Amino acid sequence: MYNQIDSNKRKTALLIIIFIALIVLLGFVFSQLTQMGYSGVAIAAVIAILMALGGYYQGDKLALSTAGAKGPIVKQDNPYLYRLGENLSIASGLPLPKVYLIPENAINAFATGRDPKHASIAVTTGAVEKLANEELEGVLAHELSHIKNYDIRLMTVVIVLVGVIALLSDWFIRVRFWGGGRGHGDSKSSGQIQAVLLLVGVILLILSPLIGQLIQLAISRKREFLADASSALLTRYPEGLAKALEKIAREDMPVQRANNATAHLYIASPFGRKKHSMAKFFSTHPSIEERIALLRKMISH
């Protein structure tokens, strides 16, 4: 369990470093090829941060509303679910998050909130009804782990980085279209260098939103692995979560009110499983089979 946690933290840190390096490179190319210079990079960063802050402080309410979550529940509403959350919160040293019920038959759940003091967990009625005690406990522990690991905060930072890349790419295309790029200089060699830079810059800035999106998805998948390992550490029973994931895979039922903006929050893809070979690169979640195998590897050790 500890090895899995350390490994996923290192991989997440590496992806963030790659992300930042990509933005630095884009910023340099952007400054060289447009009249906006480095000021354009600064403006893009400020706009992206302001947009992300809105999501950071209000995103939990939006996610819960979009999912049609009801609550927060009190102990009298659902003593079983409430006590499970309460016991796991005590074991993890976290304040009890607000618990919501989503009236959906699919087995799924998600956590949201900017920090442990402002956190919520939403669980589908299908999960409460269809999962055994230790399975539901594994699911709740997974969501509590997202809260404890500050995954919502991390993904907010990632969204800022993606926003900077998208803005730079969009501005670059607009500036070049309207003829706002820098001149090629007087000398022939200078013109050739500028032409090469322009070609590389166009390719990089056009492809960068896709690259940024792929890195964001990769980070999301690593945080799912981390939450799985942290859940196993919290419950000391990896098989509970493994069996819950098996039921999710076997049922393969989409969450009716899920959308692309909130998909990464759920414990498993709320759209059902995609079958084509490239799906893993464009998925917010790693394959359920891989997650189950890693959980059971923890048991064998």
Automatic annotation (TrEMBL):
Residues that, per the record, bind Zn(2+): H142, H146, E224
Coiled-coil zones: none
Cofactor(s) demanded: Zn(2+)
Bilayer topology: Multi-pass membrane protein
TM ranges: 12-30, 36-57, 154-173, 193-215
Gene Ontology cellular component annotations, sorted alphabetically: plasma membrane
Cofactor note: Binds 1 zinc ion per subunit.
Naturally occurring in which organism (per UniProt): Candidatus Buchananbacteria bacterium RIFCSPHIGHO2_01_FULL_44_11
Protein EC: 3.4.24.-
Gene: htpX
Family indicated by similarity: Belongs to the peptidase M48B family.
Principal subcellular localisation of the protein: membrane
Alphabetical list of PANTHER family matching this protein: PROTEASE HTPX
Protein's recorded name: Protease HtpX homolog
Pfam families: Peptidase_M48 (PF01435)
